[in-house]
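TL;DR need structure tokens for one chain.
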Amino acid sequence: MSLRLRTITREEHLAFVRSRPSASHMQVPAWADVKAEWRAESLGWFEPSGELVGVGLVLYRQLPKVKRYLAYLPEGPVIDWFDQDLDRWLKPMLAHLKAQGAFTVKMGPPVVVRRWEAGTIKDAIAGKQAKRLRDVEPDFCEARALETAERLRRSGWLQGEDGGAGFGDVQPRYVFQVPLGDRSLDDVQRGFNQLWRRNIKKAEKSGVEVVQGGYEDLAVFHKLYVVTAERDRFTPRPLSYFQRMWTALTAEDPNRMRLYIAYHDGEPLAATTMLVVGEHVWYSYGASANHKREVKPSNAVQWRMIRDSYALGASVYDLRGISDTLDEDDHLFGLIQFKVGTGGQAAEYLGEWDFPLNKLLHKALDLYMSRR
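>> reply
TL;DR here they are.
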């Protein structure tokens, strides 16, 4: 049965997201205000009866000097990805975006393909069985996700290259998640490895205090974030970005974004931001000082966020991106090593997919992105 697609209001969009267990934080209407440099549109899919059955936040980025746009649906749209007739969702979307001037469409189906338990990953690292997570037998594989990928390919969608590290997509293909549903907090903590449990106790004994901050504390977070950027050699976002994020997201829902700061003897040593949509909680940005690392403020702040996520009724605490490297000599290995200590699961998503509506302009964009 065919679906009708049209632009919807932010109110319709938000009401649909609220009716579901969760959706990506990049698919809520307020994310359009966070990404103020993009033009945004909320799309809705309707059954012939008039029932709204899917939504998508589209961000448009204009090409220099021409009125043609990259249309991007980060970690979306929010539709039935396991529908055997996926074209009834995607064909009207492509037609609409083409009419809006899009030359290419990029989307990130929020569909998990495989999961690996922390124990499986630790065994693979210890036994030096594989250099990559993808080469390790998963504990769970979603056959329907593989069918979805095949349907996309048959319809002309192109899967993004991940460069072998899982970071080729704009959003991470591999993430690390701690399941919270149907578990007690004691169960969750028992899942931590010995080092994590020891570090949490060390932080408590050292007097590390984790507090929930507000808008005025974003400057404290940002100072630590700049220190982290210098240490880890990445370009930091300006304070104004986080202020805009806070204002936009908390206006939509007071609980959408939270800030946590770990203090020791009155000095801020670590800070994190947390995002909440329904039953899904994300650790979004993290920052830490270069000194007093021995009092373990980062472990303390993570444990506080997990406890608060549990209190909010979350079913999953998402530590976001990891590389899929299991090579201890790889500079990205520390990321998975730290997160595996929480005893959760690594998850592989379908990744990002492109549909070139204008192949020449799409190829030019690819060339531009490869040279950045």
